[in-house]
Specification:
Structural class: alpha/beta
CATH topology: Rossmann fold
Helix content: 40-55%
Oligomer: single chain
Order of helices and strands: EHEEHEHEHEEHEHEEHHHEHH
Number of domains: 1
CATH architecture: 3-Layer(aba) Sandwich
Radius of gyration: 19 Å
Shape: globular
Strand order of the largest sheet: 3-2-1-4-5-6-9
Length: 325
């Protein structure tokens, strides 16, 4: 069997950077593209196939001959009307994909989870891989799906290692993701205040590198957080504002007011099907400190996160070049 990698999510933000790293590392890649193989531009060393992670029968055929699987595909959305799809693709799709990988004879898999699956910092200490978030608390379908997805992945009949990126920033966030929208909101002057929480932010290139390191050095059944730096939301807005040449929002918004605004916007999004402007899930997470430690990945994988300011500058420049702001 060759060292060909079956990659899902190659047209997504993190997945596209994982594809770059795999090809740069000399791997041949067979990329699953939802909506048709033509959506992925031709690249030397990469073959695109159309399909869906939930179609296990077709996936067996697509994966035969691949030694490895890297699964980055997911629906990442806070839109209320997409919550059923989020759970279906992220959880059921992962189960189907990994069962197909077992049948196809894939040797090992790397599955993209999320640092949200370990939950917030506890007692002033950043969260680690030893911790699990409660999959049944709160209303975040996406973050709940990542907990359920990861637990299902680690029970699969194929050897699995999971990578838990924090909030990735950098060039190429076409959609953009909810994290990218935060950058754009600051760039556009639409971020008018902050909550008291914080988050870990990572260069998307570092998150991609962590996947390849996990493939090459990760232990089966182990989880690896791929983070960058822990920042309060006020600190993060300042860094983005400096990169964008804007004034950073200084107003501290009381949590009760933010929660009420999120509830109103949730109702609007339910009625219209639009993406929320003030995601209720984001408000709830913005009230806590989603701080994590990447010490395990650094120690066991040789993961080395790079400074976050250049990554944010690359994101700002990319959005401007591509007409987002």
């Amino acid at each position: 069997m060759s060292d060909e990698v079956f990659l899902t999510g190659a047209t997504g933000f993190v997945g596209a950077h994982v594809l770059d790293r795999l090809l740069a590392g000399g791997y041949r890649v067979r990329a699953l593209v939802r909506g048709g193989a033509e959506r992925l531009p031709a690249r030397d060393g990469c073959t695109a196939v159309g399909g869906d992670v939930r179609d296990s029968g077709a996936l067996v055929t697509h994966m035969r001959g691949c030694r490895y699987l890297v699964h980055t595909a997911a629906v990442y959305s806070f839109t209320p009307r997409q919550r059923a799809e989020v759970l279906d693709v992220n959880v059921r799709g992962t189960r189907s994909l990994l069962e197909a990988a077992h049948i196809a004879g894939v040797e090992r898999a790397v599955v993209t989870s999320s640092s949200a699956a370990v939950g917030p910092a506890r007692n002033g200490h950043p969260a680690t891989e030893e911790q699990w978030a409660d999959a049944h608390s709160g209303s975040s379908a996406y973050h709940r799906s990542k907990v359920l997805q990861e637990r299902a992945a680690l029970r699969a009949r194929v050897s699995v290692t999971t990578v838990l990126p924090t909030a990735p920033v950098g060039p190429g966030d076409h959609r953009p993701t909810p994290t990218g929208r935060m950058v754009l909101d600051v760039m556009r002057g639409r971020m008018w205040g902050t909550l008291g929480g914080g988050m870990n932010v990572v260069s998307v290139e570092d998150a991609a590198a962590a996947h390849v390191l996990a493939l090459e050095r990760g232990e089966p059944g182990e989880r690896y957080i791929a983070g960058g730096v822990n920042l309060s939301l006020a600190e993060l807005w300042r860094v983005i504002a400096v990169a964008a040449g804007r004034r950073a929002p200084r107003l501290r918004i009381p949590y009760a007011i933010a929660l009420a605004a999120g509830g109103v916007d949730e109702a609007r999004a339910r009625l219209t099907g639009a993406e929320p402007r003030v995601p209720l899930e984001g408000v709830r997470m913005g009230h806590v400190r989603m701080y994590v430690s990447s010490d395990k990945a650094q120690r066991e994988l040789g993961y080395r996160p790079t400074p976050i300011v250049p990554a944010i500058e690359r994101a700002v420049a990319w959005y401007r070049t591509h007409g987002y702001a």
